[in-house]
Amino acid sequence: MNAMNQAPSLPRTDLYINGEWVKASSGKTIPVFNPATENQIAELAAASVEDVNRAVEAAHACFESTAWRRMRPLDRGRLLEKLALVVEEHADELARLETYDNGKPYATSRYVDLAFTIDALRYFGGWASKTAGEYITLSPFFDDGGVYRAYTERKPVGVVGGITPWNFPLGQAIQKIAPAIAFGCTVVLKPSEETSLTTLRLAELIHEVGFPKGAVNIVTGYGHDAGAALVDHPLVRKIAFTGSTATGQRILAASAKTMKRVTLELGGKSPTIILADADLSRAIPGAANAIFGNSGQVCTAGSRLLIEKPVYEEVVAGVAEIARGLRLGPGHQEGTQLGPIVSSRQLERISGLVQSGRSEGARVVAGGNRADRDGWFFEPTVLADVRPDMQVIREEIFGPVVCAIPFSARSEIKAIANDTPYGLGASIWTRNLDHAHLLAEEIDAGTVWFNTHNILDLAVPFGGTKMSGLGREFGTEAINAFTEPKAVVMRLAGDY
Ligand code: NAD
């Protein structure tokens, strides 16, 4: 039998706390399904508040230990580099496990999720030894004969609570764990209850590498109890969250009680903007890729397609033709381009929203329905002539559904592109660089791409404006997210 068709071996599904595998104290479990078959494949431990408290206490004890505080930054970096090597060795196995659990095509798991994960470990490993403070000459408004100076240090914030979604499970976990460790924090991570398996396998690999006990703890569980307990715990000094805007709002409100630091990477409704002078041979496949990649389950997916009138019909027809030609299938099957939707709940939400678009008068040019096969598949869908008041254009669908809107003058673009509560990404497709740069200034989004979409790089700050989030991850911004400046002010006797 082809190895790709065999079920991958599963990791331990207990909680990983203080370097040990433990059962959930309540004995409760969470069923896990393969979205391509709808079959149950595993059961996760459902952490209770007490379990989360134990994980936080372990992370705090490690953070306070002399061994952790005195560990050379280079050695924290080496831990991440060692983990990168082990993850690299197991990349194929991890990718197959992700495909089994999340449903995405193997090629995406292996060459997007795993590639990003390994790069992120190396990138943040490099940062561990490169943070530095400042030495400042002060200007006192009095003269007491002294000389005043200050220095600042970047101190790790403390215990970090990481909470991740289901669309890029392993990459998201590393996006929280790697900077936390690099900058001297310890971490308790709660993965999405939909897709925890690769994060649990990661815990096994972390154990194998020999991280200090309590430095990284993984607790699986539901958001409303395990996730909320992490947010409520006073010893957690920062929450690094990626997920929906609704959950982000709850976390922000709950964090106020203990004045936690928060970074929130939330939802989006990003525009792909095609000007009439664009190279359509690149813009049309680019627009299709921006929405259909990972079955549209991407926070920066180009879910609003704004097209200049002279090329509107051509672009809509071109994207629709690509949509019709995409091969849906189980992620492990060779040639699959689009996998299933992660859960039946998410599939129902997508179906409901597309139905609302239909009944509000949108034109269905491609797809529009649940695919006629086993598994939670939805046809790649193009809705045209969408009006700004329709639910499909206002809400994040998080599925393979794009809404096309024509515009007749370039002066309209700013208003249409920014007519959304979100501000995560946007792409502009044109041959005119002057227009591209001027438009980029007008679009309210964390990232603007020219003639490409969804290019994320660890060196570039990533995050959203408006309801798409708070703070930035990656690049030098990660230092601000995981450390705090501490100033030491001194008076030096001036008469030596
Ligand atoms: P979600 O908000 O439902 O869940 C995300 C995580 O939060 C899960 O681990 C969940 O268990 C936990 N959670 C739920 N309620 C909680 C609570 N009250 N307290 C603490 N934790 C809680 O999101 P999802 O459906 O898993 O993921 C899809 C969403 O994530 C989309 O909106 C997408 O745009 C967003 N996302 C954003 C980015 C980004 O970088 N901006 C990246 C990927 C996904």
Automatic annotation (TrEMBL):
This is Phenylacetaldehyde dehydrogenase. Belongs to the aldehyde dehydrogenase family. PANTHER family: ALDEHYDE DEHYDROGENASE-RELATED (PTHR11699). The keyword Oxidoreductase applies. It comes from Devosia equisanguinis. The active site is at E265. It holds the Pfam family Aldedh. SUPFAM superfamilies: ALDH-like. One of its GO terms (molecular function) is phenylacetaldehyde dehydrogenase (NAD+) activity. InterPro entries: Ald_DH/histidinol_DH, Ald_DH_C, Ald_DH_CS_CYS, Ald_DH_CS_GLU, Ald_DH_N, Aldehyde_DH_dom. Keywords: Oxidation, Oxidoreductase. Gene3D superfamilies: Aldehyde Dehydrogenase, Chain A, domain 1, Aldehyde Dehydrogenase, Chain A, domain 2. The lineage of its organism: Bacteria, Pseudomonadati, Pseudomonadota, Alphaproteobacteria, Hyphomicrobiales. The keyword Oxidoreductase applies. Its EC number is 1.2.1.39. Residues 21-488 form the Aldehyde dehydrogenase domain.
